[in-house]
Amino acid sequence: MNHQALLVCDVLVCGGGVAGTMAAVSAARHGAKVILVERYGFLGGNATAGAVAQFNSWQTGSGRRVIGGLADEVVQRLRAYGGAGAHEVFVMSTGHRMDRVEYAPEILKLVLDDLVVEAGVQPLLHASLLDVECRARRVETVRLLTKSGILAVRPQVLIDTSGDLDALRQAGAQFLALGDEEKLQPATMMFRFGPVDFVRFDALPKSDVAALAKEGYASGALARAALHVAREPASQNGWFNISRLAVDATDAMALGKAEIEGRRQAWRAAEFLRGRVPGCEGGRLQAFGTQLGIRETRRVQGDHVLTAEELLEPKRFTDAIAAGAYPIDIHASTGGGLVYRALGDEHAYEIPYRSLIPLGLDNALVAGRGVSATHEALAAIRVMTISMAVGQAAGLAASLACQSLQNAAVRDIDIQALRKALRESGAIFKD
Ligand SMILES: Cc1cc2nc3c(=O)[nH]c(=O)nc-3n(C[C@H](O)[C@H](O)[C@H](O)COP(=O)(O)OP(=O)(O)OC[C@H]3O[C@@H](n4cnc5c(N)ncnc54)[C@H](O)[C@@H]3O)c2cc1C
After folding, report:
1. Which of 112, 384, 390, 392 has most ligand 1 atoms within 8 Å of CB, for mutation?
2. Is the CB of 358 within 6 Å of ligand 1?
3. Domain boundary among 288, 310, 330
4. Are strands 5-14 and 34-37 parallel, antiparallel or unpaired?
């Protein structure tokens, strides 16, 4: 132990994806001393390293806003850098309306840097979780592997936003199992391709796109029967989301193989685009995502497990801390298709605070794709808009716990005070 430095803080956020970054900024803006740990040299997770490149579902099909707050600020700041497009509403093949904002992943890195620095968060980049010590239902010490050696951190509250919930696993938390019929959603190696003549590409009739996607899938060129792309603002390039890998990304051996296979799939898909797809003839593969995009790994067992039925009803929660309108969208782990449960145009659902609290621990929270939800419910609430809203709520809840309670017990905070403070910070959910 004597070679370790010891740091203390109010809130330790483990994992700097969009959920973690929003949690850290939110906690710091509300007065907490925050350390944000990220294994890469930049923030964003799937949003930057995974190059997802579009934020989906800010509003219901009828146009009622359900996402605001820090997520909105991210888009404003992206636009100020020229890194995000306009808010765009489009009609899905199911006939439902969906909306999105496309962005440049590299510019998002700058925006997240700015937010963290301005809020006074201490970023610990190039730092990976090593292990966690707990005592009497509390996370006591989190040890990190860094370029300076091992750092030990004593937080009042830990927020695990590592997606894979590596910290909570070390803390001995319980996780939800997949059901007999369920598989983890597959991963995707995003790739940037261009130049694309988007005037011709976007003008392709839906039936032609479907026929090309089917042909690509049947020939083995595409692992997913789709030509889905997010366009980089002010460029002729797009990030294509047309590869698919069935992998448990918490299995180190399988993950390495999948990264390699992902790049191979992306290369084959790019060759298909050049050879067969109108508007793509002059393009080439320019970049891979830094890592595979990971849709799903561990989901924590929390005080409340959010279900698809609750989203579809939609169930009202007295401890709602965020809302969402994204449909249940399960990418099949085998075959090229999707399982898609559309919501009505007026439909929005709520996420309760209790789904952020891991059973058996008193000073820990989860945000992002590891929250306590069934496989089906996660397939809706995993998107970045909702991950950011939930992250913002987790950060604010953690800062309240540190300020108002001696033991920072996250279950004991005043929920209505949390909801009020969230609304004052721009978050949107019903009274
Ligand atoms: C291919 C793909 C397409 C998608 N399409 C869309 C879309 O169109 N629109 C949309 O809104 N959403 C989309 N999503 C969903 C969305 O991108 C993710 O669900 C969301 O980004 C999850 O954010 P997160 O912060 O919870 O987790 P992550 O993005 O996984 O972030 C976790 C962070 O923790 C870090 N980390 C992990 N382990 C450790 C460790 N041990 N030590 C230190 N750091 C660690 C990681 O490096 C990462 O930065 C897509 C996802 C994928 C994979």
Report:
1. 384
2. no
3. 288
4. parallel
DSSP 3-state of 55: strand
Q: Read off the pLDDT of residues 58-77 as tens digits, 9 standing for 90 and up.
A: 999 999 999 999 999 999 99
In the chain, how many domains are there?
A: 2
Pick the atom of ligand 1 nearest to 291's CA. 47
Q: Is the pLDDT of residue 98 over 50?
A: yes
Q: Write the pLDDT tens digit of every residue in 288-297.
A: 999 999 999 9
* 20 pocket-lining for ligand 1 (C-beta < 6 Å): yes
Residue whose C-alpha is closest to residue 373's, from 343, 347, 349, 351: 351
Of the three residues 256, 288, 320, the one that is the final residue of a domain is: 288
Q: Is the shortest distance between the CB of 166 and ligand 1 below 6 Å? A: yes
Ligand 1 atom nearest the C-alpha of 382 is 19
113 and 177, same structural domain? yes
Q: What are phi and psi of 77, to 5 degrees?
A: -70, -35
Q: Do 65 and 96 share a domain, yes or no?
A: yes
pTM as predicted: 0.97
- Dihedral angle of Cα 48, 49, 52, 53, to the nearest 10 degrees: 30
